[in-house]
Design brief:
Largest sheet: none
Strand content: under 5%
Order of helices and strands: HHHHHHHHH
CATH topology: Globin-like
Structural class: mainly alpha
CATH superfamily: Globins
Number of helices: 9
Mean pLDDT: 87
CATH architecture: Orthogonal Bundle
CATH class: Mainly Alpha
Low-confidence stretches: 148-156
Number of strands: 0
Oligomer: single chain
Shape: globular
Radius of gyration: 16 Å
Helix content: over 70%
């Protein structure tokens, strides 16, 4: 099974597991929002992961995390709460991948999901800090970061 099909077929299970974990941890902002709203937020994030994976692009996740940084900051969420929620979703996706993807495709599948969510978490944090400190957000040139990966892979 390919990664996109796997993600699409398991949306509800992954989101339910993540929602349960977040509710158990009792993060202040998410506890105030309630389980139904938390599930909606996780579902939106998960769908954004699928969209980015399908199109192999990060821009939709970057726009989305900028939006949620503004929303969560305005609603009084602590940054660590939002990062914890994303981490929970990512961990549940990893478990899904490990259980269902052939070993030969693990690195590619995990790399894709981790790249999407990693870029999202980085962008979320930068925007959140910018809101908290009233400073301009600088961007990271991901292309320049990735350009050295070929030589690392060749040497490994």
């Amino acid at each position: 099974m390919d990664i996109i099909t796997l993600l699409e077929r398991n949306l509800d299970a992954v989101v339910d597991n993540s929602c349960r974990q977040i509710c158990e941890v009792k993060l202040k902002g998410y506890a105030k929002s309630g389980a139904t709203m938390t599930k909606q937020k996780l579902t939106s994030l998960y769908k954004k992961v699928i969209e980015c994976a399908k199109n192999k692009e990060l821009i939709p996740m970057l726009h989305y995390t900028e939006k949620i940084a503004k929303e969560r900051y305005a609603s009084g969420y602590d940054l660590h709460e939002v990062q914890t929620a994303i981490n929970s979703l990512e961990e549940n996706i990893w478990q899904l991948i490990f259980k269902n993807i052939k070993p030969v495709k693990l690195a590619e599948s995990l790399g894709l999901v981790s790249s999407i969510l990693g870029a999202g978490k980085d962008n979320l944090a930068r925007n959140y800090v910018a809101l908290a400190t009233k400073t301009k957000v600088s961007t990271i040139n991901l292309q320049s970061l990735l350009s050295g990966s070929e030589s690392i892979a060749d040497n490994g």
